[in-house]
Every structure is written in structure tokens, then in C-alpha cells.
């Protein structure tokens, strides 16, 4: 298959300043009439080439005249028309079948609705067009549809006119005055109800807000609406960015390949990121709704008003927008807990990606299928790059940089380089070396060794960095790494100031005077750089920091490192001091000055996957055994504490305040440790919480705790849950997911059975992710030594590829990590990848991921 390369970028031959689209909507056969005003871009005689995918032109007109068959050609989907002048009016007529569109790209049907998904290259499945983000057009859209089936007709921009037609049909016209790339085009038709509200912008303009869902779901839209209004106010306050149209609509759909889509003025969402009520949504779901609503809204500036020149610049909009949504969520809740959660996600998803066969730079150099590049590297590492620049600049200069970026590039298709240059010009900083972060893949390793010299009463911090080789990049250059650092005096329990050290060389040292006794090192505070830090700190130093560090992230990190050292030691058969972990947990849980949500994060054991990342060869069984044993020991030794915590954190009534959320988080952690303690009533207490809970956060956590065990209550709770939520797709996903995530010796067999369950379907990406996505993330179960887990996931990829290649390709990376496992497992994983590759008619999406995984 064709490889697209960044260095091959050329400006478009033809521009399309205006486009008028006319849709005769119908689920089985929709007719699309597109009228493009095209202008020659530069002095050349190249023909007009319009991208198409699965389209056949019914008729083509140029300047009103119908073209004969020899006046155009169709090759691999691309429509070529020779044009003589510098400007023309080109019309095409096609027919498409939304109902048969199982890829969920282009125009498709979902639960009685018709909706679109055009990013990255879905517009070419709707009509012929230069489907690239640097062709910006003003859109005018007219739709006609059966009024009974599709009473609501929405598109980008502002509504202009609507009316009735004969035969029970009606029509509507929408205009979007802001030139946009076609990946931001959207329409929705369906029987939808609206949660309507308004927002007055900072310049006093009134914006009509609408969240459109099925009538029955209206009561579940309040949180999303509040999140939207908070986001609009936050972007004005923090970035000075105001909304620009008269309406802003959001539609929730059940079948969606991703989280949501930022189409101009008409965001389309996976319903799981809109709908929330206490009965069916966990606190994590509520936070997900808030974060994704904000993310899509923020794209209106970082992505829509300033868009990307080409798809290699994807992180320009995604990294920056993730950074913006992370800070928004932190401002809405706890900065400390949000940072810990974000780093946990980064390490789980991006560090793994960066150390495997699919590692790529934040600005990639090539791709086969762009959909495969909506990755943790582009999104989460991209956000860390922005965060580092913000840290180096400080708030005022960072704001000067973003103001300059938005003003300089408003209405343009920009590059990552444009962003960095705006930071340099607006923030008055030299980022020459920092640019390497965009070029070099791989997570930098930093060794930080502190040595004390009593004679000179000084300490020297030796810093060394290296970036591991990644595919196509065997050699790496030293990066510019900002490390927030402090030295703690063990006598006073305090440090003398937090410094930003810039590590720019492969090896560098700094000396600090005035230390008669050795201080304790706190480094990469706040996770100031996305790197792996290795230090020579003792377990006692880490225990000290876990009790005294005033940077919440560093305090959490010290606690986690303390646990990792014990667990990795135990797995390796070394003598370890588990008492230090138990003591640190006891001190943290009983510290009245700490936020309960922070406590819950700090006392949680590192995940099995994270422990695997610390080992040369991952041993899933040994990791599981060691972690489980430590969990049981912590449970048993502190049992009275867990019982007490579990009782104390029970609320009288549901609230969504940060305090109430923190209490639930701690309560669920207490339940987990209590169940692990071996107490005879562990399952009874869990079942009690399951039955009495007035919210899904506690109910699902209790179900998950029971699902890890083998009690009679396990089956009872799963049955009750199923019967209660069998008709609610999003909640039934939790039933599948909880079982696929369970630490249970039979999980692999259970997942096989669940794959045959009458409620399982490959047609819905949320359901696939709930079962197979969750299972592939359950290290112990997925890597079952029989190899059955690999077969199940490979079977799913093969079957799903025929329907929805994008979602299928997202299941490949767990199999691609075969080099990290023992020979027997590696051979079985490789064999499954090879089997997939032999499938006839395999998609480009899966082919790229599998072949790179085998290289
Ligand atoms: N910008 C959006 C990306 C997206 C997407 C990409 C590929 C396939 C389907 C998709 N749906 C949405 C989401 C975002 O980052 O905001
Ligand atoms: Zn995004």
C-alpha cells in the first residue's frame, strides 16, 4: 500500500473557496449534489483531482455543461478533470448508502439517525472533493428528508431557512461563514430532542446552545450542558477566546469510532461522553463527559479557526487541545489528582507505545493509514510538549505566545513549527533544541544521582540522559528536558526552593552548596517532563518523600516507587521490606491534612502493566502473584483501618462535589483492600455496597471487587446488574467490561463466552472496546499461558476488519508487544499476527499496524 511522507507535502493545485451541498437524505440511498467553485492555485496546468472513496459520479458538470465520459477519469477513487481557466464551477452528483456503511466514516446510520464522521478522510466517502486539511471552503448545505423519520435537520454553522415539501418531506439550509477544511463538515438528521440553553459571550453576544439526544435521554444531558458553559467561560478567561457563531449544537450518537468530533458548530459525540446520571454513570464517566465536551469545544480555536496544514501536524491541534482540556478539568476539580491521573494514562498508553514497534514521533514522518495515528503519542505526549513550553515560559509569556499563535494563524492551516515559532516570538525564548521533542520518538531516560560531600558541605546532582532507539531512528540526540527539582532537609522536612533545571547535555552536573548533611532529592516534580527517571534514592528516602514532599505529584510518585521497588524485588526473588509499604500506606490514609481523592491515588498499587514495564522480560503470572500477595498483606494488616474508612466515607445522599467524589474513591479503595484482607465477610460487605449504592461509582466498584473473587455473591451481583441494565447499552457495556477486566483465573474463558453472548455485537465500537479492548488491557488474563487470549483477540480483529477496520486496527497494539514477553508467549503472539496478515482483503488500517508489529 501507498506510504504518505511528510517531506512530500506540496500546496494544493486547486482551491475551493465555496461549496454548496444538496443532500436528498435517505438511509438506503442518499443523493449528493455538490457545487464547487474552484480556483487554480499558482501557475500550473495540472488537472483538478478530487478524492473519492467508493463513489461513482452519476453526472459531472463544469460551468453548467455536462461532461462527456472522455472528459473525466476515475482512478483508485480519484476523479480527474482537465480544466482550462483559472476558475470554474464544478458540479458532481453521486448516490451513497448510509445504511450499509459499517465503517462509520462518511455518512452513516446509527439508531435511526443519519450522521457524519469526516475526520480524517471520511468526506471523500460523501462527495468528490480535495480531501486535505489545507483546502478551506465556505459551506452552504441544503438537506431534504422524510419529515416523520428525520424531523430535525442539522449542519455546521447557523440555520438559514427551512420549509415543508410535498410527499411528507421537508428541507433546511445551513450556512457556515467560516472557511473550514472538509474534515470539519457535519450533518445530522433524525428524531431528536433538545436540551436548549444559552451563553452570553464576553463581548455580549448571545449563543444558542443545544444538546440533541433521543427523547428518553434528555434527563441525562445536564452535566454535559454545564460542562459546555463552563468551557466557554474558561476559554474566554484563560485564553481570551470567544465563540464565533450564533448556535452551538452537540448531537449524541450510539455508534461512533472515537470519543467525539469537533465539527464546526455541530459537535458529534459518542453518547458515552454526553449522557450521565448517578444511576448509570460513574464519577470517571462524569469526568469523561466534562473533559471531552471541553476538548471538542476548545477545538473551535485550536483546530477549527487555526487548523492543520496536513495530517503530520495532527498534534498541533490534538496535543494543544488535550493540554487545554487537562488544565480546564484541573481548574474544575483538583490540580493534584488530575495531574496524577493524566500521568497514569500517559505511562499506561504512551510510554508503552513509545517503547514498542508502533513508536513514532509527535510529528510523524510517514503513514499508510492516517486513522492509525490518532495515538497517545500525538494526543498525550503532544500535550506534554505544550506543558513543557508553558513551564519554561511561565504563564504570562505562554499566554503572549498563544495570543500570537491565534492572531497570526487565524483562518489558516498551520504547522507544529508555526506553533513553536509563535512561542519563541511571543514568549521570547529560544526553542531550537526543544524542537527535537517533535522529531524524536522514544521516552527519554534520565539518571539522577545525588552525591554528598561532607568536606565541602555540598551536594552534586549528576544528570545523564539517553533516548532509546525506535523504529527508523537508531541514533538519538540529547533533548532539552525541564526538571523541576528540590532538595529536602531530612531534619526539618522542608526544602529550600523549587528550581527548574534544564538538562540539555547527555551528561551534566549541578552542585548545591550549604548542605552539611545529605539532603533528599525530589525531581521531576509535577512530572515536569515526560521522561523515565532513575535515581539512587533509598527506600527510606522514598518513604520520607511520601510523607513530606509538598509537591503532590512527587509525593504520589515517591509512594509508587516505594511499592514498585518492593514488587519488582519480590518478583525477582530479592529480600524486600514490605513493612515500609504498609507503614507508608497507614500514614497516608490516616493523615487528616490530605485530600481523600489524593489518598486513594497514592495508596493504589501500581498496575500489573506498569510493573511489566519495569522488567526486562514481562512475566504476567509472577507480576500478578506478587501484586496480589502485597494487596492481601496490606488488606490484612490494616483491616480495621479499611473497615473504618469504608464506614466513614459512606454518604447519606448522592452529590457530585469534589469532596463527595473523593469520598467515593477512597471508599472503593477501602473496599478493595478489605476484600483482599481475607476477612470472612469481604464478599458480604462488597455485596452490601453493591445492593445499597445510590450511584454507579459505588455499584460498579463493588461489582468489580466481587468479580475478582469466586464467591456466590459474584454470580448474584452479575445477574442483578445484567437484568437491571440489559436495555441500556452504555451501562450494559460496564457489565461486559467489568468481567473482561476481572483478576480471575477464568477470565479468558469467560471472555470467549461473552463474545458469543446475545448482547454482544461487533457493529457497536463501544461494545467491542468494552469486551475485547478491556480484555487486551488485562495483562494477566490476556497473556494466559495457553495463548487463548491472543487467539480471541486475533479472531475479533479478523472478523471486525470486514466491518470496521478503524476499530479493528486499534486492537492490534497489545499483540504487537510480543518482544517484551518470554519466548513461548512471543511465538504465539507473532503467530497470531502472521495469521491476521494472511487474511484476504485485509484493510490498510490493520495491515499497517500488523506489518509494523512484525518488523
Ligand atoms: N478530532 C477528533 C478525531 C476523530 C476521529 C479520528 C479518526 C476516526 C474517527 C474519529 N472521530 C473523531 C476527535 C478529537 O480529538 O477531538
Ligand atoms: Zn481532539
Automatic annotation (TrEMBL):
Q: What is its EC number?
A: 3.4.11.2
Q: What class of enzyme is it?
A: hydrolase
| UniProt GO molecular function | alanyl aminopeptidase activity; metallopeptidase activity; zinc ion binding
Cofactor(s) in the UniProt record: Zn(2+)
Catalysed reaction, written as an equation: Release of an N-terminal amino acid, Xaa-|-Yaa- from a peptide, amide or arylamide. Xaa is preferably Ala, but may be most amino acids including Pro (slow action). When a terminal hydrophobic residue is followed by a prolyl residue, the two may be released as an intact Xaa-Pro dipeptide
Keyword annotations: Aminopeptidase, Hydrolase, Metal-binding, Metalloprotease, Protease, Zinc
Q: Its biological function? A: Aminopeptidase N is involved in the degradation of intracellular peptides generated by protein breakdown during normal growth as well as in response to nutrient starvation.
Per its record, how is this protein called by name?
A: Aminopeptidase N
Q: What is the lineage of its organism?
A: Bacteria, Pseudomonadati, Pseudomonadota, Alphaproteobacteria, Sphingomonadales
Gene name of the record: pepN
Amino acid at each position: 500500500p501507498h506510504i504518505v511522507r511528510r517531506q512530500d507535502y506540496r500546496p494544493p493545485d486547486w482551491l475551493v473557496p465555496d461549496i454548496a451541498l444538496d443532500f436528498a437524505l435517505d438511509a438506503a440511498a442518499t443523493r449528493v449534489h455538490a457545487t464547487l467553485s474552484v480556483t487554480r492555485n499558482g501557475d500550473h496546468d495540472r488537472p483538478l483531482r478530487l478524492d473519492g472513496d467508493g463513489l461513482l459520479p452519476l453526472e459531472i458538470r463544469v460551468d453548467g455543461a455536462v461532461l462527456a465520459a472522455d472528459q473525466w477519469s476515475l482512478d483508485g477513487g480519484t476523479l480527474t478533470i482537465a480544466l482550462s481557466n483559472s476558475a470554474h464551477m464544478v458540479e458532481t452528483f453521486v448516490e451513497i448508502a448510509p445504511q450499509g456503511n459499517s465503517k462509520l466514516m462518511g455518512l452513516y446510520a446509527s439508531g435511526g439517525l443519519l450522521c457524519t464522521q469526516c475526520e480524517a478522510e471520511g468526506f471523500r466517502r460523501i462527495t468528490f472533493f480535495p480531501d486535505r486539511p489545507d483546502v478551506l471552503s465556505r459551506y452552504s448545505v441544503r438537506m431534504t428528508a422524510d419529515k416523520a423519520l428525520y424531523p430535525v435537520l442539522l449542519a455546521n454553522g447557523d440555520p438559514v431557512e427551512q420549509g415543508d415539501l410535498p410527499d411528507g418531506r421537508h428541507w433546511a439550509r445551513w450556512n457556515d461563514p467560516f472557511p473550514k477544511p472538509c474534515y470539519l463538515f457535519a450533518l445530522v438528521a433524525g428524531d431528536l430532542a433538545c436540551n436548549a440553553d444559552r451563553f452570553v459571550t464576553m463581548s455580549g453576544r448571545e449563543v444558542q446552545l443545544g444538546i440533541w439526544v433521543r427523547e428518553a435521554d434528555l434527563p441525562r444531558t445536564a452535566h454535559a450542558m454545564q460542562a459546555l458553559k463552563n468551557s466557554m467561560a474558561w476559554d474566554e478567561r484563560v485564553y481570551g477566546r470567544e465563540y464565533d457563531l450564533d448556535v452551538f449544537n452537540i448531537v449524541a450518537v450510539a455508534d461512533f469510532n472515537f470519543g467525539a468530533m469537533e465539527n464546526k458548530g455541530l459537535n458529534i459525540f459518542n453518547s458515552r461522553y454526553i449522557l450521565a446520571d448517578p444511576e448509570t454513570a460513574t464519577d470517571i464517566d462524569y469526568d469523561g463527559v466534562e473533559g471531552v465536551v471541553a476538548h471538542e469545544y476548545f477545538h473551535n480555536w485550536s483546530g477549527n479557526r487555526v487548523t492543520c496544514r496536513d495530517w503530520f501536524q495532527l498534534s498541533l491541534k490534538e496535543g494543544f487541545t488535550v493540554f487545554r482540556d487537562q488544565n480546564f478539568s484541573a481548574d474544575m476539580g483538583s490540580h493534584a489528582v488530575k495531574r496524577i491521573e493524566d500521568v497514569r494514562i500517559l505511562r499506561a498508553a504512551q510510554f508503552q507505545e513509545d517503547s514498542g514497534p508502533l513508536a513514532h514521533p509527535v510529528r510523524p514522518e510517514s503513514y499508510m493509514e492516517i486513522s492509525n495515528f490518532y495515538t497517545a503519542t500525538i494526543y498525550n505526549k503532544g500535550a506534554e510538549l505544550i506543558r513543557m513550553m508553558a513551564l519554561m515560559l511561565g504563564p504570562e509569556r505562554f499566554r503572549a505566545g498563544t495570543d500570537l499563535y491565534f492572531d497570526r494563524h487565524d483562518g489558516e492551516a498551520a504547522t507544529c513549527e508555526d506553533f513553536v515559532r509563535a512561542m519563541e516570538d511571543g514568549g521570547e525564548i529560544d526553542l531550537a533544541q526543544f524542537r527535537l521533542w517533535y522529531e524524536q520518538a522514544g521516552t527519554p531516560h534520565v539518571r539522577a544521582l545525588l552525591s554528598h560531600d561532607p568536606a565541602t558541605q555540598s551536594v552534586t546532582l549528576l544528570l545523564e540522559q539517553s533516548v532509546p532507539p525506535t523504529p527508523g531512528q537508531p541514533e538519538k540526540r540529547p533533548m532539552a528536558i525541564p526538571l523541576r527539582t528540590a532538595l529536602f532537609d531530612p531534619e526539618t522536612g522542608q526544602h529550600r526552593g523549587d528550581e527548574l533545571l534544564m538538562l540539555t547535555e547527555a551528561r551534566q552536573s549541578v552542585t548545591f552548596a550549604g548542605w552539611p548533611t545529605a539532603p533528599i532529592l525530589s525531581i521531576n516534580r509535577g512530572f515536569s517532563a515526560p521522561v523515565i527517571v532513575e535515581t539512587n534514592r533509598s527506600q527510606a528516602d522514598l518513604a520520607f518523600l511520601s510523607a513530606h514532599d509538598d509537591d503532590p505529584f512527587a509525593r504520589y510518585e515517591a509512594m509508587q516507587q516505594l511499592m514498585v521497588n518492593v514488587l519488582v524485588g519480590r518478583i525477582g526473588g530479592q529480600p524486600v521490606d514490605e513493612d515500609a509499604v504498609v507503614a507508608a500506606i497507614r500514614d497516608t490514609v490516616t493523615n487528616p491534612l490530605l485530600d481523600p481523592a489524593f489518598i486513594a491515588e497514592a495508596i493504589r498499587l501500581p498496575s500489573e502493566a506498569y510493573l511489566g514495564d519495569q522488567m526486562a522480560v514481562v512475566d504476567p503470572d509472577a507480576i500478578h502473584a506478587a501484586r496480589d500477595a502485597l494487596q492481601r498483606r496490606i488488606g490484612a494488616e490494616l483491616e480495621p483501618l479499611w473497615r473504618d474508612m469504608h464506614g466513614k466515607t459512606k454518604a447519606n445522599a448522592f452529590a457530585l462535589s469534589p469532596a463527595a467524589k473523593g469520598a467515593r474513591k477512597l471508599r472503593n479503595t477501602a473496599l478493595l483492600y478489605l476484600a483482599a484482607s481475607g476477612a470472612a465477610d469481604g464478599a458480604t460487605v462488597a455485596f452490601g455496597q453493591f445492593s445499597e449504592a445510590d450511584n454507579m461509582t459505588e455499584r460498579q466498584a463493588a461489582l468489580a471487587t466481587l468479580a475478582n473473587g469466586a464467591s456466590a455473591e459474584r454470580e448474584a451481583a452479575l445477574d442483578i446488574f445484567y437484568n437491571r441494565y440489559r436495555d441500556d447499552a452504555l451501562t450494559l457495556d460496564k457489565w461486559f467490561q467489568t468481567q473482561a477486566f476481572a483478576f480471575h483465573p477464568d477470565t479468558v474463558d469467560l471472555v470467549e463466552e461473552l463474545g458469543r453472548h446475545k448482547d454482544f455485537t461487533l457493529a457497536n465500537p463501544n461494545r467491542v472496546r468494552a469486551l475485547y479492548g478491556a480484555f487486551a488491557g488485562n495483562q494477566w488474563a490476556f497473556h494466559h499461558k495457553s495463548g487463548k487470549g491472543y487467539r480471541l483477540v486475533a479472531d475479533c480483529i479478523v472478523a471486525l476488519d470486514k466491518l470496521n477496520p478503524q476499530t479493528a486496527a486499534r486492537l492490534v497494539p497489545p499483540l504487537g508487544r510480543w518482544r517484551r514477553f518470554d519466548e513461548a508467549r512471543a511465538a504465539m503472539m507473532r503467530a497470531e499476527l502472521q495469521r491476521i496478515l494472511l487474511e484476504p482483503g485485509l484493510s490498510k488500517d490493520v495491515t499497517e499496524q500488523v506489518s509494523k508489529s512484525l518488523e
